[in-house]
Write a structure and sequence with these properties.
Strand order of the largest sheet: 1-3
Number of helices: 5
Helix content: 10-25%
Order of helices and strands: HHEEHHEHE
Radius of gyration: 17 Å
Mean pLDDT: 87
Number of strands: 4
Shape: globular
Number of domains: 1
Low-confidence stretches: none
Length: 153
């Protein structure tokens, strides 16, 4: 995701929607992408040739509750997200990588017309792991006795 999906009417539905940096799916090399996949303005298809699906599977797990017996209502869509703002730097720092690739990636993030349907990254599983951010749990306002939707602070 390059933009947050938002539901302003329902706090809990909003928390469960994908946010910027969330990975929607991880598929093997050569995946046959559909027309909608290739044209959705808020998604980017990032190819990581040779990186096994299992090395990235943690990126598609929902946030897990610290107490599975009493899971909060405010669990996020994903437990990890990618720092897409740092990806260009990660690409540029790779030895032997043309600096234009980092610039092209930054342009691809802002291309909501999807002129480039996929983007191949010169990164490996360790590079992606360094860009992965464990999400901070979202506080459930109902637990604190605050009306859902009220601003705290």
């Amino acid at each position: 995701m390059v933009l947050d999906k938002v539901n302003q009417e329902d706090f809990y539905n909003n928390v469960r929607l994908p946010k910027r940096g969330d990975v929607i799916c991880v598929v093997p090399d050569g995946w046959p992408w559909g027309t909608r996949d290739l044209s959705e303005p808020h998604w980017r298809i990032l190819k990581l040739p040779g990186v096994p699906v299992e090395d990235l599977s943690y990126l598609i797990n929902h946030e897990t509750p610290s107490d599975p017996q009493n899971p909060p209502k405010a669990l996020q869509y994903r437990g990890y997200g990618l720092n897409v703002d740092k990806m260009g730097d990660a690409i540029a720092s790779k030895n032997g990588v043309n600096i234009d690739i980092a610039s092209d990636f930054a342009s691809n993030l802002m291309d909501y017309q999807r002129h480039t349907s996929t983007f191949t990254l010169p990164l490996n599983a360790d590079d992606i792991k360094a860009l992965a951010i464990k999400k901070t749990p979202v506080s459930d306002p109902a637990v604190f006795g605050v009306e859902v939707g009220a601003v705290i602070g």
